[in-house]
Amino acid sequence: MKALKKTLVIGTSSIMALSGMGGVALAATQADVDQPTASAEEQNQQSAESNVVQVSQVIGEFAFTQGETTANDVIKKNLGDASKYLCGAHAVADAEEPVEDWTISVSGAVSNPYEATYDEFVQSDDVQSLLLGCACAGNPADGRAAANAEVTGVSALVMIGMAEPSAEANTVVFTSADGYEVALPLDYIQMHYCPIVFDVNGAPLAESMGGTNQLWLGSTAASYFARDIVSITLEERQTPPPSPNSDEARAGYGNLPNIGVMFGGDVQ
């Protein structure tokens, strides 16, 4: 940011010292004595306000951007293959179902259960493409298990709305073809963009993450990114599952055995 200049703010005591007034003592009047003394917090606030420098226009360039997308071969290497074991997506079957054959049913505490095919999703007006991030929950700082991608799919919330859930429904369960489940509070889905994705960077999901479709969740660890979703079930639970960003969910994730324990340190 070449146009941005560092502004040096000189305090009152520095000005006095520079002007030769550092040793001048000012006599206090009776009015000064009678005035209540401001607290340290108030003095700090007043000092901060007096030192604020306002700039009418800031000019420059930011070197960091989230608009870049990660190539599919990089996603496959750092997330697609690894997520078969590290994320909650589970391994994709060797013989993958042709993308045009998969269907998703929406049922449970709804008044309009239905089943839709891939072709019906693709041809609907609800298909959207947007840039989303994907990062493994155990990814360290500067770790490679993170990516930005332009994903194409249908919002899970739109699919749920089409089924007309009951007023008491508070839990959404996404079930994969192998029986793996991800349960989330309904209000969490309502507050985050959560698409069922079938294309990544303009190519079928199988070329990067693997599988035919995958649940992506905005601002959520990839451990919830289940693949090959075949059903979405609305439930009325007495206690809905914890939100992924809650302390309860993080504590539960921390107690799961890691990959070395599960596979004896040798992942094939």
Can you give a write-up of this model?
With 268 residues, this protein is an alpha+beta fold. It has one domain (72-262): Alpha-Beta Complex (Sulfite Oxidase, Chain A, domain 2). It contains nine helices and ten strands. The strands form two sheets. Strands 2-1-10-5-6 form a five-stranded mixed sheet. Strands 3, 4, 7, 8 and 9 form a five-stranded antiparallel sheet that branches. A hairpin with a 2-residue loop joins strand 7 (195-200) and strand 8. The chain is globular, with a radius of gyration of 28 Å. InterPro entries: OxRdtase_Mopterin-bd_dom (IPR000572), OxRdtase_Mopterin-bd_sf (IPR036374). Residues 1-27 form the signal peptide. Residues 99-238 form the Oxidoreductase molybdopterin-binding domain.
Short description:
Helices cover 24% and strands 21% of the residues.
Sequence-ordered SSE layout with sheet pairings:
Layout: H1 12-18, H2 30-34, H3 40-50, H4 72-80, E1 103-108, E2 114-117, H5 118-123, E3 127-135, E4 146-155, H6 156-162, E5 171-176, E6 181-185, H7 186-191, E7 195-200, E8 203-204, E9 214-215, E10 229-235, H8 247-254, H9 259-262
Parallel strand pairs: 1-10
Antiparallel strand pairs: 1-2, 3-4, 4-7, 5-6, 5-10, 7-8, 7-9
Signal peptide: 1-27
Protein name: Oxidoreductase molybdopterin-binding domain-containing protein
InterPro entries: OxRdtase_Mopterin-bd_dom, OxRdtase_Mopterin-bd_sf
